Structures are given as structure tokens and as C-alpha cells.
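re: ur question from earlier - yeah i can do the single chain one, its not a big deal. heres the input i used so u can compare w yours
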Amino acid sequence: MRAAALTAALAVLAPAAPAAAADRFAGQVTDALRTPVRKLAAGPSGRAVADLVFLDRERAGTTYRTCVVRRAARGARGARDARGIRGARGARAVRTCFKATSGAAGAATVTPLRFKRGRYVVRWMVAGEVVARWRFAVV
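and the output i got, formated as C-alpha cells:
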């Protein structure tokens, strides 16, 4: 009887987990004015400065991992390289990951970075699960 009740309770809660993560966490790429952007203009050096902003609305001190993937500029759309990353045929997309810890609950954690021209995907992960993602381009 208890096992059946527990199974029923877990079945009800399981589909809600991704939605709960979406409500709890947020990640975006912003410009210097903290405006969320999908396209950034490169400067004379061919690079743009952007801020990776992560937010945990419920807890302080959340350890998270951020991965930035620079997709290859040429090739068939949807083609993947040897590691399974989308980009040009045979080309290797550039992937950089780092760990960080959030500040106070509800306070944004900002990581400024410089990006070369190209298309990027940023993913924020907590406990191995992707909780936020953002696509943008530097032109």
C-alpha cells in the first residue's frame, strides 16, 4: 500500500521537475548595460565583450557549471564534428567550460568574457542537468 502511494506521488512530481528548474534558474548573455542580447557587434579587434549572467532564485551558494560552445562558421547546417558538436564538417567547435558558485539567492552572478566573431551556445548546468541555455552571435 505504501509503495503504491509512493509510486503515485513520484509519478505526479516527476514531470514537474523540468518546469521547476525553469522557474528556479535563469541564464542569459547581456551587453554592458545588462540588456539581454542575441547579437553583439565586434569591435576593431574582432571581439565583443559580453556578460554571462546566472541566477538561482531560491538558494545561495549554488555550484554550477557553464559551458560556452563556439560553433564552426562554415559547413552544412546541422553537421556534427567527431565529438558530436554541431558545426562544420570536420571542423572542431571550440568548447570552454568552467565552474562557479552563485551569490545570494535571487542575485545575479555575472561573468564577463570576450568573444571572437561567430555563433555561440551557452549552457548552465546544476548537478549535471542543463537548467538554462542561451544562443547568440558576434558579428
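The helical segments are 2-13, 16-24. not sure if urs matches, ping me
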